[in-house]
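ok trying this again, last paste got cut off
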Amino acid sequence: MSIQMVDLKGQYQKIKPEVDAAVLEVIESAAFINGPAVSRFQASLESYLGARHVVPCANGTDALQIAMMALGLEPGDEVIVPSFTFLATAEVIALLRLTPVMVDVDAATFNLTPVAFERAITPRTKAVVPVHLFGQSCEMQPILDIAAKHGIAVIEDAAQSIGADHIWPDGRRQKTGAIGRIGCTSFFPSKNLGCYGDGGAIFTDDDELAAKMRSIANHGQAERYYHERVGVNSRLDSIQAAILDIKLRHLDEYCDARRRAANTYDAAFAGIKELATPVRAEYSTHVFHQYTLRVLDGRRDQLREHLASRGVPAMIYYPVPLQQQNAFKGLVPADLSLPVADRLCTEVISLPMHTELNAKTQGTIIDAVKSFFHA
């Protein structure tokens, strides 16, 4: 069999009876929209995260948009985001006619730094979006402290970090997404907790904010046909919720499998000076949504070509930083220099990472990487 970046079919085969039964239950009930399966999954995820409220929605991008709409941000308000992330994080800012302020990231963890965040604050700054990239939390304690000092809302983008723990200075642990004013996630199929279509959710401990987000996600109504505000149509359908409720029960074992695979990669590449393996921050566990290396000798693209010739897929997340995307021309200064993000876009490469990686497959991947540097 060919090597996959993500083996969703293999994962499904292991939980097939559970998933099939859950899907069939929804079909037989005909409660396809806002059915009992959605309520069950919502309650399960609230319990898992330790969040007071989970608001299911259609996808992770909608989750971010609904969060910003609920905060009452106005055109021209500034929202700080890391420049090294997927476009959606900043896309919704521009869509709402807010101003995205891109900042540099840490070269080791790839995440937004408290220093970069604080330097970018102006009187118009109303929110910050720490993105827990590749499966590891940002350094949340100083980010929260800075945000509180300046009255800035913290919207966590936990689309890649569901299941990861932030570790506080006193040793206490808290799930990413349940730390800031609002947390957002995606259930895109390749995510650590993924459905078999599109899906997303928003988290908060604020009762009033949760009610507002539920209303916005449902055409601005709390009671049918009575619309208190302009909203959107964004819902998690019952079949996807039923699948997610099954997969949530396996999430911790999925994260453990990814960590074991990451440890194997780390050990294999430890002696290759041209590679930097992922850093594990002391304030976070890592759930390895991606296993991302940095190629330090300028031959990242050649390595990818070499791997492809050996039947090993690899992906570049991300080849262009946000501030250089054509979509944001006119929204960010033309001369904005973010050197770490710029450099990472030329260095990073992600290897296959999923719950079904076995020793044989991983050995083939490792041999292919080593053969490039030891040729």
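PB: full thing came through this time. The chain is about 40% helix and 15% strand.
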